[in-house]
Amino acid sequence: MLDMTIDRQSPVPLYLQLAEILRQQINTGKLKPEDMLPPERVLQETHDISRATVREAISQLKNEQLVITQRGAGNFVKRAAKVERDLLGMHDFDIQIEAGGHTNNVELINFDTSYHSPSATSRLGQAGEEVIKVTRLRLADNEPLFIEKIYLPKSLFPRLVAEDFISTKVFSNKITREFGFIIGEVMLQIEPVLLTAEEAKVLGIENTPAAGLLNERTTYDQQGRAIVFSKWLFSGSRCRHVLKIKAK
């Protein structure tokens, strides 16, 4: 997409046009969270507008919570708020993400119906069997949140296709509605890890080595069968994991 420019024939005020130019650069990732905006003088000269117009545009973006000003340093793209995950919450994580005011999206990276993994098959009680492996990138506010790897027994989910995993809710709905499973228990293990260079790249982390948080989750039905084993790999900067315990 070509960079937008100021249109002096437009009825839209110049400061709103500049605000839209900067907003587009933020939304497309050209300006990333914590990046410094071009200095006011540079914006003034680049777009041939007054310093007052530049300041009005920046004020507009500050009102939209997109930009913050640090005294003596300049104007910066506001860092995205962390997603909060309640580990004992009554709602699944998708609902928690959206309830926190964040957008919730997914990118399907890989769908493999003939995957062999001793660790995954042992968790699923399917030793020696092929399993379905799904790899997805989960995003909040269009920024990488975690890498999700899902392992499923082929014998329990014979009709799954890649399209079942291109949104956040299709598969979870299918577990109960189409396949008839009722969730009985979930076991969650959490440990800190070092991200590989490839994992860091997918999560949008430039400086490596970097720390991550690995969540391994096994879901059982009411008969005690392991029906889903998943690995969620978080970057430490995007999500806060909260454990709320009530006193008895």
Question: Can you tell me about this structure?
Answer:
- This protein has 248 residues and is of the alpha+beta class.
- It has two domains: 14-77, Winged helix-like DNA-binding domain superfamily/Winged helix DNA-binding domain (Arc Repressor Mutant, subunit A, Orthogonal Bundle); 83-242, Chorismate lyase-like (Chorismate lyase, 3-Layer(aba) Sandwich).
- The chain is 25% helix and 33% strand.
- The protein has seven helices and ten strands.
- It has helices spanning 14-27, 40-47, 51-63, 93-99, 118-123, 170-177, 197-202; strands spanning 67-70, 74-77, 83-86, 104-115, 131-140, 143-153, 183-194, 211-221, 226-235, 239-242.
- The strands form three sheets. A six-stranded antiparallel beta sheet has the order 4-5-6-9-8-7.
- Strand 5 and strand 6 form a beta hairpin.
- Helix 1 (14-27) crosses helix 3 and helix 2 (40-47) packs across helix 3 (51-63).
Say how many strands there are: 10
From N to C, what is the helix and strand string?
Answer: HHHEEEHEHEEHEHEEE
- Given helix and strand content, the structural type is alpha+beta
Number of domains: 2
> Which architecture of the largest domain per CATH?
3-Layer(aba) Sandwich
- Strand adjacency order, main sheet: 4-5-6-9-8-7
The fraction of residues assigned to DSSP E strands is 25-35%
End-to-end span in angstroms? 58 Å
Q: Classify the oligomer.
A: single chain
CATH topology name of the largest domain: Chorismate lyase
Shape verdict = elongated
CATH top level assignment of the largest domain? Alpha Beta
The CATH superfamily of the largest domain bears the name Chorismate lyase-like
Supply the number of helical segments: 7
Average pLDDT figure:
88
Largest sheet, in brief, is: 6 strands, antiparallel
pLDDT < 50 runs, ≥5 residues: none
Gyration radius (Cα, Å) is: 23 Å
